[in-house]
Every structure is written in C-alpha cells, then in structure tokens.
Amino acid sequence: MQSYALTVDKLLDHAAKWFGDREVVTGGGSGPDDRIGYAALRRRANLLSGALASLGVTLGTRVATLAWNSRHHVELTYAAMGIGSVCHTLNPRLTIEQLAAMIDEAGDILLAVAGDLIEQGAELKARCSSVRHLILLDDEGATSPAGTLTIDKLIEDHGVAVPWGDFDERTVAGLCFTSGTTGAPKGVEYTHRSNYLHTLRALAADAVALTARESLLLAVPMFHANGWGLPFAAPAAGTKLVLPGRHLDGASLAGLIRAEQVTVAVGVPTVWLGLLEQLERSGESVPSLERILIGGSSCPAALIERLERGLGARVQTSWGMTELSPIGTLSPPFARAVPGTAGRPPLGLDLKLTDADGTPLTDQRAGQGHLWVRGPSVLDRYLGAENDALDAEGYFPTGDLATIDRDGNLTICGRAKDLIKSGGEWINPAEIEAIVGADTSVQHVAVIARPHVRWGERPVMIVERAEGAEPVDLLALLKGRIAGWWLPDAVIEISAMPLAATGKIDKQRLRREYASDPAAAA
Hints:
Elements: H1 9-18, E1 23-26, E2 34-37, H2 38-54, E3 62-66, H3 71-82, E4 86-90, H4 96-106, E5 110-113, H5 118-127, E6 133-136, E7 149-150, H6 151-158, E8 172-177, E9 187-191, H7 192-202, E10 215-218, H8 225-228, H9 230-237, E11 240-243, H10 250-259, E12 264-267, H11 269-282, E13 291-294, H12 301-311, E14 314-316, E15 318-320, E16 327-330, E17 350-354, E18 369-374, E19 396-404, E20 410-415, E21 420-422, E22 425-427, H13 429-437, E23 442-452, E24 456-465, H14 474-478, E25 490-493, H15 507-514, H16 518-521
Parallel strand pairs: 1-11, 3-4, 3-5, 4-8, 5-6, 6-7, 10-11, 10-12, 12-13, 13-14, 24-25
Antiparallel strand pairs: 1-2, 8-9, 15-16, 17-18, 18-19, 19-20, 21-22, 23-24
Helix pairs in contact: 1-2, 1-9, 2-3, 2-6, 7-9, 10-11, 11-12
C-alpha cells in the first residue's frame, strides 16, 4: 500500500478539488455576510502558510488564536497546521491572567486576534515574552496598535505557495486547554493523525453524518477542541460551512439559518434555547433545519422535547471531552434517542466501566461505574506531563460516572469529583440536577458540597429561574423522588448562572462563592 500521511491539510485539499465552489459563510450580524468557496479558501490559506513562514513560523512552533468562528480563523488554522506548526486556540472569555498563563506554557510565538479583541491581544503581546507578532484577523471595530499585521496585508505582501503536509502524521497539529470548570485547565495536544481519524469517526452514518447536501451551522466555538472537529469534517464531506462569527444571539442565528438554508446545527443547549425563545417571541420559523447536535452539558428530556417541538428539528444528543478530540458518543442522527442517554461510540472509541479502584465491572451493561476510554483520538498525556494518564490497558480515566445499557447507549451520571460525601454516604448531585432541571421554571441548576462540622459535607442547590416563570417549591419537587437525607440544605437563587464558554456550569466558581457557610460549618 502507498505511504499516505494522515495530515489535516489533505481534508481541505479534497474540498478544494471536488467541492471548490461549496461555500464557507461567516455571518455579519447587521452587516453583510462574508462568503468564499473551498478552492479560494485553500489558495488563501496556503499563501498564508508562506507568509507565516516568513515570520519564523516553522515545524513545531506554536501560534495562538483569540477569535470567534469566522472564515479568517479557519484560514489561519489550516495555514498553521499545513506547514506543521501548532494552532493553539484560546478562549476569549477567559481573563488576561488566565490567557497569559496558557500562552506562556505553550510558548506561542504569534497571536492572531479578532478585530473586537485587539485590546486583549495587544495586552497579551506586551505581557508574554514569547509572542513576537500580533495579527489582526478582521477589522471590525479595531484600532490596531503599531506593528500589528493584518491577515489580508500579510497575504498580499508575503504570501507564497508552499508545500503542505511534508512531515510525519504524528506531528502535533493543535493545542487546546480544558475548560477548567472542575479543575485547573490542562493542555491537550492533537496530532494530525488523531484529527484525521477523528474526522472519519465524526462522518460515520450513525455519528455526525455530514454529506455534501448539508449546510452546517457551527455554533460551537473553535476554541473548544477545534469546534468539535467540524472545521475538518465539513470540508472532508463537501458540506457548506456556516460560521456565526461573534453573533450568537437568537435573532442573528435565526436569520443566518434561513438565509443559508442550514440543515444541521451544532452547539450547546443554551444557544438553542436562545434561538427557540427568539422564534417564540417573533412567530418566525426555521423550516430548513433538520437536526440539532447538542453537547457540552446534559440536556433534560423536557428541554429536548421543547426544542424539537419549537424548532421542528430532531435533537441529537452527544457526550465528549476535550481529551477525546472531543467526540465520544452520539445518539443516532435519524432516529429518536433513548431519553437521558448520549448514544453509542462510533468506530475508533472503546469504553469500559470500573469500580473506584479501577477494576472492570464484571457486567459492563449493568450498574454504574467509573468511565474509561481508549482510541487513536484520545489523550495520552497532558501538555508538560512526564507520564501518561492511562491505565495498564491504555484506557484514559474520564472522571465521569456512567452506565451503559444493553443496547450500548451511554448515560453520564455525574462527575466522580462532584460526589458529595455526607455522613459517610455518597450523594450524586447529577441525579438531583436532572429532576430539578426538568422543571420548566428552571433555567440552570447546580448542586455543590458545603462543608459541615457534623456530616462532613452537605448539598446546596443553586438555581437560575427561567425568565417569566412562576416560582416552584423545588425542595417539594424532590421529596419522594430522592432519599430524604439527599435533600439540599439550602436553595440559593441567582440572577445568572456562571457558565464556561463551552456552556458548562462553572462549578469551581460556584464553590468559591457559595460553598462557604460559617454557621453550617460550625
């Protein structure tokens, strides 16, 4: 057989050759949309590779992006990866201190930023000694400091065609830090091989199942595990790629879906709830939409039913992690998911359940256990770690508690580190959250542990009520459905639940702000 390196540049090469006119569209909000064909995007990205090389970007060097989902962000990604450098996506919603720490750990030599993030970019360049160049991806609202390069000017002045993929397929292609919602953020490096194989897994018929007839709205940010790998999967399938830019409000998304005839939309539940509320207010519809793929956080069955009814599209549930590149399991795209489950793993990912000591459960389809995963797109070790994070069989510990039913459907039952030990017995916050979260009066709910002098820990429930909803006695809602001693000691109502950019509730922040109660502790 031929020697054929599995490098991600080949995915865009395929799109340029066979789907050259298929569009990549970036929503402009109130302004005009930006659109380009795959063939033209490939040409620009390759010229940009040559321009990056003139700035000292070479094999193995790291370049960072601080940007939203846009055509220029995609161009920069392929330009960097095509010549073997590492694209390090940063989350714009983090603090300058957090971003600077990540840049310093990665040793990024270049920072590319969106126009409305130029001030943060300039401050990061000043603080991080490794960053030599600041590149502006677009000029929306930007006043650039001296020395800033624009992507278009860079291509115009220094763009030159260069060979892509002239390196080993195990070369690192991307870097993303974990969300840090349950622990300190850690760097995860993706290789070309892992991204390529992850793309093939995503395209499976019972997975994301993209085809050339689809129009895909990518509302999950590219700084979350390369946008769930879909900037690779879309060109690989010849799928029209629709990017919302910074415009994730319900009105902008509704207009973009209608204008671009979007058939598949991908994002966290909060995004689709915002779209649904916009449609309910306006009386509009999105008739082209066929499927919504949700992930990032659990979605109660009641919310899924509401989304399907209001949007007229099937909801496809999933589970994944940054460490999995990130797709883990998915419910079938063209059949109703088993309520509460996140579907089955596509080929290329294996699961196992163990007890707390790491011993595999005798019957993998009965009972709850700690979830471990193995596959070619699964983390071996974190950035900077000397040792791998795997067990003797090569499985990675997800930190999740889960069950697998007789049909192979995975259900995430909560994070092992979120369990609350009260009086020597365990309380699972996820079970409480699932009951309360299903009530229409609740927008977000989280249960955390609060120290207690007698019981060690006790549960406290934090709630964001749905706008305009009639208040419901949430403790009464729980009585008779959980053990009496599981009932939270307090219900704290807040105006807005703190969320990470991935849509997950930031439990670390909740613990800092609400876990301390001197009276209870004493």
